[in-house]
Amino acid sequence: MEQQAYWAIGIFVIIYGLIISEKIHRTILAMLGGLAMVVFGIVEHDAALHHIDFNTLGLLIGMMIIVSVTADTGLFKYVAVWAAKKVKGEPVRILVALALITAFGSAFLDNVTTVLLMAPVTFSITKQLRVNPIPFLITQIIASNVGGTATLIGDPPNIMIGNEVEELTFMAFIYNLTPIAMLIMLAYIPLFVWMFRKQIRTTPELQADIMKLDMSELITDRKLLIKCLIVMGMTILGFFLHQALHLESSAVALTGAFVLLLLTGEHKMEQALTRVEWTTIFFFVGLFALVSGLVETGVIAQLAAKAIELTGGDLVATSMLILWLSAIASAFLDNIPFVATMIPMIQEMGQMSMDNLEPLWWSLALGACLGGNGSLIGASANLIVAGLAGKEGHPIRFLYYLKIGFPLMLLSVAMASVYIYIRYLM
Amino acid sequence: MIQYRFDETVIEVQERRDGAETEFRIRLLQAEPYAGRMKDIQRRFEDNEDYTDALFYVYPDHAYKIIVRDAHYADFLTALFKAKLILSLAWAEA
Prior knowledge:
Chain A is an all-alpha fold. Chain A has 21 helices and no strands.
C-alpha cells in the first residue's frame, strides 16, 4: 500500500474511534475527518465532492420537511388514540397496536422521526392508564428498526444502498425486504406480549376513560392535514413509480416537500427548514468524504479482496459473513459509517470475481438495519427514545435493554439468514 | 400552596392530588370564548419539549382531564388565570 493509504487508514481509525467514544459530536468528527482527507491531499477536492451522495441527502431532507409539516396537524396522535380506542383501551393490545403503527410509520418515514412522533402520545396514553411506559417505548424502538428495514426510505442504510446501486429501486426493496420485515414483526408480537403482559395492567375505569376521549379535538389543523395527506400520498406513489418515471427518489421527496411548502405558505417554510436535522445531513456529508479517502487510496479494494479470500469467494459464506458482521457491528456501532464503508467494499467485490451481488446487498441492508436492535446504542432511534424516557423520569438502562434487544436481534438475524439462503442462495 | 377562585357559572374545577402530580377535572359551562382559550393553553403545554409537564385529555361536552406535574402546577394555574378561566390566584399558608 502507498503512504497515502496509511494516512487514510489513520484518519479513518481515529475518527471512527472518536465517534464510538461519543466524547465529541459525531457530525463535527465526520466533517473534520472528511475535510482532513482533502486538506492532507489524500483525496482531490473534486473526487471528495463526487463521493458525496446528494441523492441520499435530498431524500432525507425532503422527507424531513414533509414530516415536520405533517406533525403539526395532530395526525399521528389521532392515529394512536384511534388505535387505543379500537382495542378498547386494553394495555397489552395498545402496546401491540402502537408497535405496529411505529413499524408501519418507520417503513415510510425516518425511524428517528417516527419515534419522536410516537413518544409524546405514548407518554399520554400510558399516563392515562397509569402503566409503565418503558415496555411501550422498548417495543416501539424495536418495531421502528424492523419497520425501517422494509423499504428504501425506511432507514439510512437502505437509503444509502438504494441510492448507490441503480438496480435496487424502491419496488425492489419492497419486493425483497418487506416480506422478511413482516415475518420478523409477526414473530416479535407474541414475544412482546409474553415479555410485558404482567407489567402493564390497568383498571376497567381507566380503560373506560380512554374510550370516552373526544377524537374530533385531536386534529389541530384540518386544512393543513388535507394538504399533507395529498402530498404524502403523491410522494409515496412517486416512490413506487420512480424507476418508470426515470426519477431519483430524492427528486420525488424534494418535489413533494416543496409542493407542500408552496401549498402551506412561507411561514411554514421557515419553520420546516429549521426543523430539518442538519446535524444528520452534515454527518452524512462528512462520512461520504471520509470514506472517499479509503476508496481513492485502494484500501477498500484490499479489504474486499481479503473478505473474498476469507470466504473463498463462496456466495453463501460471503452473504452470511456480511449479514452477521453487519448485525453485530450495528448493534454496538453507528450503522451509517459502517454501511458507508461496506458499500464500496461490496462494489469492489463485484469488480473482482463475484458477479451476483444481489444477496450481498440484501445481507448488508438486513444486517445493518436489524442489528440496530441489539443494544441501546445500536441506532439513533434507540438513543433518542432512551433520552426522552430518561428526561420524563423513566430511564431505560443499557443492560435492561440489552437483555431484551440482543436476543430479539439474534432471532431476527437468524430469520434473515434463512430467508437469504432460501430466496437467493439455494 | 395556591388558592384560586373561579366563576361557577362558567367553569367547574376539581382537583385531586396523586403522588407527584395533580389531576384536574375541568368542565366549561360556556363554550364561547373559553373553549378556544383552553385549546390555546393545551397547545402551549404540548408544543414544548417537556412531554409530561401537563397532559391534556379532552372529552365531549367541553370536559377535560389534565394531569399536571408538581413542578408545573403554578404554571398551569397561571395559564388558566391569564385566560380568565379562574378569577384570582393567591399564595396561602399550607
